[in-house]
Amino acid sequence: MEILRIKDFTYKDILKNVDISIEENSFVTISGANMCGKTTLIKVLSGIIGSNNVFLEGKNISKINVSVFHKKLAFVIPSLDEEFIFPTVEKELFFVLDNLGVRPSVKTARYREIIDLFDLRDVTLCNPNFLDLKNKTKLKLAMAIMTKPKVLLLDDICYMMNKEETRDILKKLKALQKVYKMTIVMTTSNLVEVISSDVLYILDKGKVVMKGRPLTILKKDNELNKLGLAIPFMIDLCVKLEDYDLVNKIVLDMDLLVSALWK
Amino acid sequence: MEIVFEDVCYKNFTNLNFTIKSKTINGISGSFINDIFLLLQGNEKYLGNIYFGNVLLGDNTKNDYKNLISIVPRDISKLVFLNTVEEYIAFNIKYRKIKVNDSRSTVLNLLKQLGLDSTYLNKSIDNLSISEQRLMGVIVSLLTNPKVLILDEIFSNFDLKFEKKLMRLFNYLIDNENMTIILLSNDSEMLYRNTKHIVLLGKDGSALDGKSSKIYRDIELLNSNGVEVPDIVLFTYKVREKTDIKLGYHVDIRDLIKDVYKNV
Predict the structure, then answer these.
(1) Element (H or E) spanning B236, and its range?
(2) pLDDT at B116 > cutoff 70
(3) How close does chain A come to B88, measured CA to CA in Å?
(4) Domain ranges across chain B
(5) A178, A27 contact by CB (below 8 A)
(6) Which one of 3.60.21.10, 3.30.70.1520, 3.40.50.2000, 3.40.50.300 gives the CATH number of domain B3-212?
(7) Tens of pLDDT along A172-225?
(8) Over residues A135-153, mean pLDDT
(9) 8 Å CB contact of B257 and A255
(10) Is pLDDT at B78 greater than 70 in this prediction?
(11) Contact B130 A237 (CB under 8 A)
(12) Distance between CA atoms of A3 and A55, rounded to whole angstroms?
């Protein structure tokens, strides 16, 4: 069932006739080179940039009551100069719960559930502004999903993270999709992050130029390279080895690929 | 300009020694990378010696050093009264007293080398993506015409095409302006691909510097210091470990494929 839709939307010269339909409980990634319109698209979907062409559960978002909208749809759009307000992670999270008017009887349970989900237990008394990047990102995600939204929009959430940190964050997002039945829409210019998603959209100069299963799209190495995108190493390697008839499928595990090549 | 750390003691290390090579692309990676970033800015108190060129960095020479370097930090401070990229650049020129003749044409020339045009200057800062925001920092830093350009995790938001364009610009600046480039990052793939000289900061507070092509192929060294091994190196390493084939270490995947084809 469709949960979020942007219908034939054009915005200045940044987005052109963008039409994207997002299924409930899916993990959708939107990728493309720098300045292709990813951030703008997330801002339109999240209502930051006003539009009459975005529909949440079939209703035009401009007609939905703001507080109802934000309970159903949350977003994290990182900014380079953002700061947390409170001196501890615990206070920061409780502030969000207080603001949401969560009953005192369930507040603590909700808080514990969230810090366990994001492995934040060890940093609850730390100043959030001094956390490392991974924990800062986890905290932002924790704050965003306090309302248990149906849709979570994320703009380049793994920026500046190393491979291990990125893997960890993606694992958490998959858990959100599975445990909370959340629909996740995430932008990234790093194609390594798209492999585990259900649907991948590629934007170029504000237009959707590819849509499909990530592995199917990632095989189009020449087209993606032309757009300025780097193919994940194992996929790039397998696609090129396929050209030489040395393998006949994508193998993501390096050890398995070595064994397959030198039996 | 060469920068030498000699027996430097600071928060997380003692007697640290390494060299940042002149007129090349250097990488700095590993533990306590932020400490090195702070020291390179020339404001911190430390024990030991840091030389720039052959000059000892100290109270008397600190300002000379600062005039020679330019920093591109991770965080770009947004100022509420500035609306467009052009206003941001103009403000920085005025505030930082950057001496540049015909700043607009210099900026346009830089943008041209990066495949961009004047429309970027008219963009609203509020609507910029993180990569576009960081680009503002690069442009302002280059306007100061530094001898050393220090960039903190600069490529983490840039796509491959833009990375290549920036690297082309950096190489042009090395060849024509004798600039020294320092990339601080923990992205081993990017550093292996782009740097000539690497300073690897170990977990134990030590430092090792040398050719990137050599250090990034020393798997045991990387593993013992918690540094990620570039995928292309790891693949060759695994082939060498699991078979008796001595596949060569490569930077370009096309060279690796040719090597695999010859040996499979």
Answers:
(1) helix B231-242
(2) yes
(3) 15
(4) 3-212
(5) no
(6) 3.40.50.300
(7) 999 999 999 999 999 998 999 999 999 999 999 999 999 999 999 999 999 999
(8) 93
(9) no
(10) no
(11) no
(12) 8
